[in-house]
Amino acid sequence: MKWLVLILGIASNASASLLIKLAMQPPFRLPSLNAPWAALENWPLLLGIFLYGAAFVLYAIALKFFPLNVAHPTLTSGAIASVAVLSVVVLDEALRPAMVAGLGFIVFGVILLTAGAR
User: Fold this and answer.
1) Mean pLDDT by 10 residues, the chain (118 residues)
2) Is 71:11 a contact under the CB 8 Å cutoff?
């Protein structure tokens, strides 16, 4: 159960980031003085904001089960790795070898943090 909370928090955070990126692409618009309600038509923006809120709630719940020095790095690094993969799969962004190595170091660091906390 406790790991499911962290996984859902990672998924919410990464999905929110992807949706916010999509919200900045045409045909979606941000609110302006000429169109203050444009954000209400920008469903990726609204869903992204909602998912960031959900990620925050899931993070708070995870803190009941995990020490801060495990929950925060795990959630953050999991979101970083997930966003990197999603940006390649969904947005067709580049993933260079140095980026893959960096993600590997992040994952390895979190494994060491969680193993050391036991």
Assistant:
1) 93 97 86 79 93 98 93 92 94 94 90 78
2) no
> Which tokens go with 40?
């209400």
Let me know: does 79 contact 10? Beta carbons within 8 Å: yes
The one-letter code for the residue type at 112 is L
For residues 89 and 70, give the distance between their C-alpha atoms in angstroms, rounded to a whole number: 28
pTM recorded for the entire structure: 0.86
Q: Which residue has the tokens 């190595």?
A: 101
C-alpha span between 75 and 57 (Å, rounded): 12
Q: Which two tokens stand for residue 86?
A: 């999603």
CA 2 – CA 108 distance, rounded (Å)? 21
